[in-house]
Amino acid sequence: MSSVFANVLRAPEDPILGVTVAYSKDQSPNKLNLGVGAYRTQEGKPLVLNVVKRAELMLVDDQSRVKEYLPIVGLADFNKLSAKLIFGADSPAIQENRVATVQCLSGTGSLRVGGEFLARHYHERTVYIPQPTWGNHPKIFTLAGLSVKTYRYYNPETRGLDFEGMLEDLGSAPSGAIVLLHACAHNPTGVDPTIEQWEQIRQLMRSKSLLPFFDSAYQGFASGSLDADAQSVRIFVADGGECLAAQSYAKNMGLYGERVGALSIVCKTADAASKVESQLKLVIRPMYSSPPLHGASIVAAILKDSDLYNEWTLELKAMADRIICMRKELFDALQAKGTPGDWSHIVKQIGMFTFTGLNSEQVTFMTNEYHIYMTTDGRISMAGLSSRTVPHLADAIHAAVTGKA
Ligand code: LMR
Q: What is residue 1's predicted lDDT score, i.e. its pLDDT?
């Protein structure tokens, strides 16, 4: 019997989430998933933050809570508190009511809604994304109706920032172009500009009227400090100019599956912000109508209660610190083995990922021979590593680099 869908071609797995699919099929007891950026404990288990459990218990106990639809823009408290979290409590943009914030489906949803809004209402349809960047960025913006170009970002030689290349490419972008910037903990490279470099980027972008669109998926996860990790965004907001910011609570609150995030558009006037919000509603309503209630309620409960908020910052810092320890342990293990090459980028890069510099053949070798799963660009999620698994990874890298099977 032939199906009307018989001619549908099989699509490839997602380059990041497909790694987890392959990992799940592996029967080896030593298998290790360093593909998707998802935090694991020292025992290799997913972590539900204690503060999240406390907030959930409070929500369940609150008899006044109902399951009505949220407004199209989401939970009002959540939106206000999210803007405060990224822009800072004393942000003039917030005080002057110049920010339109809408609750979206985590980082991806926020980027998509922002992209669709820009495609409809902004005069320049080109978005510049770093090379390399998170694999979903070009797909999100293309489907949103923007045309995607890249700017140089990473220098494979130094395994650091290609600052000159970045400034040159942004300098030759057409005036008004949109520029996607990773607020901190650049994915996949783990390489961020310094604050001084951010300031130079800001000056250049403002001089050319380039529109910054920040992707903030790791606030607090890079340095362990929520404020330090928002500095890049805040220096752009401080100059009174426009910008967009997509926030995700997947990593920093461990709310991956709750799909909770926010899109903020900072405008120059309160009137513009309220018109922008009215148009964002027109983007959201036919896409998913209104966002889900539960995750945003957890986040709002934590952000508005000083006791819960403080507990969150401690748990967040503990996650960031554990990742930093894993960097050190992996670096030390490779040093101890005398693995050829300079591996100091493992400790220099920040955030969830190390961009190892391993090529796709070496990655395939490590997966086939050592059951270690990672993306083919050589990115490893440091958050998936533990003291117990570091030696296994070091053995695999050593064998891959020295060509010893
Ligand atoms: C990642 O890069 O691993 C994460 O941002 C998860 C994802 O959705 O790709």
A: 77
Domains, the chain, with CATH or none: 17-47+322-402 (3.90.1150.10), 69-304 (3.40.640.10)
Give the span between the Cα atoms of 211 and 173, in whole angstroms.
Answer: 11
Contact 101, 108 (CB under 8 A): no
The answer to whether 404 and 59 are in contact (CB under 8 A) is no
Residue 212 predicted with pLDDT over 80? yes
Widest pairwise Cα distance in the chain: 66
User: For 129, phi and psi rounded to 5 degrees?
Assistant: -120, 150
| Ligand 1 atom 1 nearest Cα | 37
Is 36 touching ligand 1 by the criterion CB < 6 Å? yes
Ligand 1 lined by 351 (C-beta under 6 Å): no
Q: Which atom of ligand 1 has the smallest separation from the CA of 217? A: 5
Note whether 362 and 339 are within 8 A (CB): no
Burial of 330 (0-12, 13-18, 19+ CB in 10 A): buried
Mean pLDDT of the chain: 96
Outline where DSSP puts E strands in 310-377: 353-355, 372-373
C-alpha to C-alpha distance for 149 and 194, rounded to whole angstroms: 24
Q: What is the pLDDT of residues 266-325, one digit of tens each?
A: 999 999 999 999 999 999 999 999 999 999 999 999 999 999 999 999 999 999 999 999
| Catalytic sites, residue numbers | 134, 215, 251
| 230 pocket-lining for ligand 1 (C-beta < 6 Å) | no
Each residue of 116-127: pLDDT tens digit?
999 999 999 999
pLDDT tens by residue, 142-192:
999 999 999 999 999 999 999 999 999 999 999 999 999 999 999 999 999
Q: How far apart are CA 271 and CA 268, in angstroms?
A: 9
Are the C-beta atoms of residues 40 and 384 closer than 8 Å to each other? yes
Is pLDDT of 403 > 90? Answer: no
Pocket flag, ligand 1, residue 134 (CB < 6 Å): yes
Q: pLDDT per residue over 217-237, tens digit each?
A: 999 999 999 999 999 999 999
- Could you tell which of 134, 184, 381 is best to mutate to test the pocket of ligand 1, judged by most ligand atoms within 8 Å of the CB? 134
Query: Could you tell me if the CB of 37 is within 6 A of ligand 1?
Result: yes
**Ligand 1 atom closest to Cα of 108?**
8
187 lines ligand 1 (CB under 6 A): yes
Secondary structure (3-state) at 343? coil
The Å distance, Cα 37 to ligand 1 centre, comes to: 5
